Task: inverse folding
């Protein structure tokens, strides 16, 4: 099978150029948010809290702050980019070009992951300035970041295809992603929770995302790693198949 | 090499389902010879743009076959798409991109390497007199310049077949005549062009073969000379054919 590598690279390059065209929205805003989280939860509150899991509280919350930024960046990149293309009919440029449906998936997801990695890099630098970064498993860290970005990029694609207005574009983020992220243990350990709440948290996939990144950074995990792997791999595979099928059927993009 | 650059057989395209189902194209068959300048005429909603969308991959045919240079646009869609370039009726572009970027991105999508791509974009920018505007945002360009940028984008991968859907809509008379000269030159250089337009003098001036679509069907097809027999203009013949067809449909 011939892969259109130059076409895919062009899609990534275009997204990077778009990212830098609106740099305040795409790169500066997440860094400011992360800085505020680290200052408030790490410096102000964290210094009053004893070390947890053998690390300062700021190092415990940093993976969650990083995950929050990655999720927002990849979801916003894929959803806004594709929805804008639908809105302006710019999607027709992709439809008439020699891309297979799998290549379209790789192109859109890869572009969003690229932006998420740019944001992750900047947040890591910010974390280093706060002394919050440790990395016990760099390979695992990169894999977790890439997989989580890919999951939210694919969710962003589905929402961009479904939405009929800019308001609808925010529905999933407002009612699902944000609540589940904050309830997924990004700022606290589930050992702080009553048993029932801890059990419910284990049903939240975001708990496994945060735990995976945290484990790769500070080596501390509260989740069953096999369950975590199955949740993340299952979502990547399931959403990948679903999005490829949607592109294949041309849902909302091909009449 | 196929003598027919485009062969459409029994093309049907329906939208929606159940009570809302509409058939935009009803069993169209067409053969377009290589090197021709082919005019596709018809009133609004006749099925011209839908047919073009099926050829280019923007729409999925409900049934029938479309071959571009012998390549099936559904079964072998990746190869088929390299053979056709489209300048659509609506500006389907990122309005914040420049003509140079639009052509460059499109060339990239078609898998053209950077050195070849840059040279090709320079060549098209020159060919369409866009040197002064190559770094200007698309939204800031005049109607005529936008159309030229769209033409450049459609030609960047040197397609065998160029499809122009209302390429002079919203363009002033002088710029329209300039565009005609570009198109004529392209066709004389061997490019097969399909043109849809509501300006029938444009069709008469540029095209050597014509088909009329009405209510989703081909109602007339032939050479320009055949259309203009008896000293009629293309416009006179077009009105005669579509009015007769509309009367038949009313009955």
Result:
């Amino acid at each position: 099978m011939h892969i259109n590598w130059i076409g895919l690279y062009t899609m990534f390059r275009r997204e990077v150029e778009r990212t830098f065209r609106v740099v305040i929205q795409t790169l500066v805003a997440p860094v400011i948010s992360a800085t505020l989280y680290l200052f408030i939860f790490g410096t102000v509150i964290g210094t009053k809290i004893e070390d947890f899991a053998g690390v300062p509280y700021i190092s415990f919350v940093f993976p969650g702050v990083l995950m929050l930024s990655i999720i927002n960046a990849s979801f916003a990149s894929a959803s806004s980019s594709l929805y804008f293309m639908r809105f302006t009919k710019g999607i027709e440029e992709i439809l008439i070009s020699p891309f297979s449906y799998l290549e379209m998936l790789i192109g859109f997801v890869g572009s969003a992951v690229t932006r998420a990695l740019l944001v992750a890099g900047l947040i890591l630098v910010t974390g280093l300035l706060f002394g919050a970064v440790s990395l016990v498993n760099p390979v695992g860290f990169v894999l977790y970041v890439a997989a989580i970005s890919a999951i939210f990029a694919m969710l962003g694609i589905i929402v961009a295809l479904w939405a009929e207005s800019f308001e609808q574009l925010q529905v999933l983020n407002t009612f699902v992603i944000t609540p589940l992220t904050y309830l997924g243990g990004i700022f606290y350990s589930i050992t702080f929770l009553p048993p029932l709440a801890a059990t419910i948290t284990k049903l939240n996939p975001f708990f496994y995302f945060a735990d995976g990144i945290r484990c790769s950074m500070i080596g501390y995990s509260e989740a069953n790693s096999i369950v975590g792997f199955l949740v993340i791999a299952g979502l990547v595979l399931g959403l990948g198949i679903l999005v490829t099928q949607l592109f294949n059927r041309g849902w909302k993009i091909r009449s | 090499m196929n003598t027919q650059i485009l062969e459409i057989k029994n093309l049907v395209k329906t939208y929606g389902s159940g009570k809302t189902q509409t058939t935009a194209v009803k069993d169209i068959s067409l053969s377009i010879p290589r090197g021709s300048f082919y005019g596709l005429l018809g009133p609004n909603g006749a099925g011209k743009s839908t047919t073009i969308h099926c050829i280019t991959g923007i729409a999925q045919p409900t049934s029938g076959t479309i071959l571009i240079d012998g390549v099936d646009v559904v079964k072998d869609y990746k190869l088929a798409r390299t053979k056709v370039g489209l300048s659509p009726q609506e500006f389907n572009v990122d309005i914040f991109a420049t003509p140079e970027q639009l052509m460059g991105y499109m060339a990239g999508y078609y898998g053209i390497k950077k050195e070849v791509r840059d040279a090709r974009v320079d060549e098209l920018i020159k060919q369409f007199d866009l040197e002064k505007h190559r770094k200007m945002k698309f939204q800031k360009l005049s109607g005529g310049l936008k159309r030229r940028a769209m033409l450049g984008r459609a030609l960047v991968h040197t397609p065998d077949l160029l499809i122009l859907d209302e390429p002079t809509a919203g363009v002033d008379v002088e710029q329209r005549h300039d565009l005609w000269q570009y198109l004529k030159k392209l066709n004389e250089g061997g490019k097969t062009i399909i043109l849809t337009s509501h300006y029938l003098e444009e069709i008469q001036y540029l095209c050597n073969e014509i088909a009329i679509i009405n209510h989703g069907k081909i109602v007339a097809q032939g050479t320009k000379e055949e259309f203009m027999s008896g000293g009629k203009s293309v416009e006179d013949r077009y009105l005669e054919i579509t009015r007769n067809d509309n009367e038949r449909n009313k009955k």
Notes: Chain B touches chain A at residues 15, 50, 53, 56-60, 77-79, 81-82, 84, 86, 88, 90, 92-96, 105-106, 108-113 (CB under 8 Å).
